[in-house]
Design goal:
- A seven-stranded antiparallel beta sheet has the order 1-6-7-2-5-4-3.
- The chain has four helices and seven strands; from the N terminus they run E-H-E-H-E-E-E-H-E-E-H.
- It starts with 6 loop residues before the first strand and ends with a helix.
- It has helices spanning about 15-20, 35-40, 90-100, 130-159, and strands at about 5-10, 20-30, 50-55, 60, 85, 105-115, 115-125.
- Strand 3 (about 50-55) and strand 4 form a beta hairpin.
């Protein structure tokens, strides 16, 4: 069997970028069982309610939904179990220090295969207020409208 290379996206948490200011991102490996990996290879996972937590010098991923593998037997995994993340000690210490600050949290942004191994991209984030969310949405709409106007002007100029 040929060795996998490259990056294959499994799941993204688009809502996290809407709900949080992303301050820093980290890539971590995950400790998984065989049926979890097989389920992920089918492209089935959800990061919507997921969060990361540091506990006793270890990093864990909570509430990430990896559905049970359909061909699995009694060895199948539970869908929302706590999963250990693999990070360097310096990264864990840095995250522990920064996440202690008020309003900071660790959220998963993406779950993907990198060279055949499952990786999770986690972010140190600070929650947005409601008015921040509205302002971000307004800026996005303004940017989209200005891009449309520019492209329409260019089309008109060519034609």
């Amino acid at each position: 069997m040929a060795k996998e290379t490259g990056r294959k996206m499994i799941a993204q948490n688009k809502k996290a970028r809407h709900d949080y200011h992303i301050l820093d991102t980290y890539e971590a490996g995950l400790v998984l069982t065989g049926t979890e990996v097989k389920s992920l290879r089918l492209g089935r996972a959800s990061l919507v309610d997921g969060f990361a937590q540091l506990d006793g010098g270890e990093a864990y991923l909570h509430n990430v939904h990896i559905p049970e593998y359909t061909q699995g037997t009694w060895t199948n995994h539970s869908a929302r179990r706590k999963r250990k993340m693999l990070l360097h000690r310096a990264e864990i210490d840095k995250l522990n220090q920064k996440s202690q600050e008020s309003g900071h949290t660790l959220v998963p942004l993406a779950l993907y295969f990198k060279d055949g191994r499952v990786k999770v991209e986690i972010a140190l984030a600070k929650g947005k207020k409601e008015y921040d969310k509205r302002q971000t949405l307004r800026e996005k709409q303004d940017r989209r409208e200005s891009d449309r106007a520019i492209s329409a002007a260019r089309r008109k100029q060519r034609g």
